[in-house]
Amino acid sequence: MEIRKPNDSEYKKILSLAPQALFDGTLGEANPSDEKVKQLVEPLLKKGSYYLIATEGNNLMGWILIGTSKDQFTEKICGFIYELYVLDEFRGGNGISKQLMETGIDHFKQDGYSEVRLSVYAGNQANKLYEKLGFKNRTITMSMTI
């Protein structure tokens, strides 16, 4: 498996699969259109965020979208993982998610960041991976249906 930045055709494939990634990541709560995905992703890319992809041969297996975020209270800039996704056929014990996360974290370390953050839906299977990697709850967003 190779982890690297995508070329143009791989980037287009990511964008075509991104609505499914957001649907899965939000546990079915968000079902964005291709246009909505572009509205979410393009500003991040313009501000320096980038994808790293996991491939084997010509197969795109998954990706991570990494960038930065500013803490709204302290103004501290930290690394931020905006998205992690592994295609269905490559899930289940291959360690792709873990390798993508570790590579993304290494990029942050190389760029001098001392902290990495991410947001994840409660109940998302990825929570277990994040905890194993050392992530801890920092804030919790709560909701109530009324």
Counting copies of identical and different chains, the oligomeric state is single chain
State the share of residues found in helices, binned by percent: 25-40%
Overall structural class, as computed from helix and strand content, comes to alpha+beta
Overall shape: it is globular
> What Rg do the Cα atoms give?
15 Å
Q: For the report, how would you describe the main beta sheet?
A: 5 strands, mixed
* Secondary-structure element series: EHHEEEHEH
| Relative strand content | 15-25%
Order of the strands making up the biggest sheet: 1-2-3-4-5
Treating each run of at least 4 consecutive H or I residues as one helix, how many helices?
4
* SS elements, strand count: 5
Fold and architecture overview:
- The chain has 146 residues and is α+β, with helices and mostly antiparallel strands.
- The protein contains four helices and five strands; from the N terminus they run βααβββαβα.
- The longest helix is centred in the first third of the chain and has 18 residues.
- It is globular and about 45 Å long.
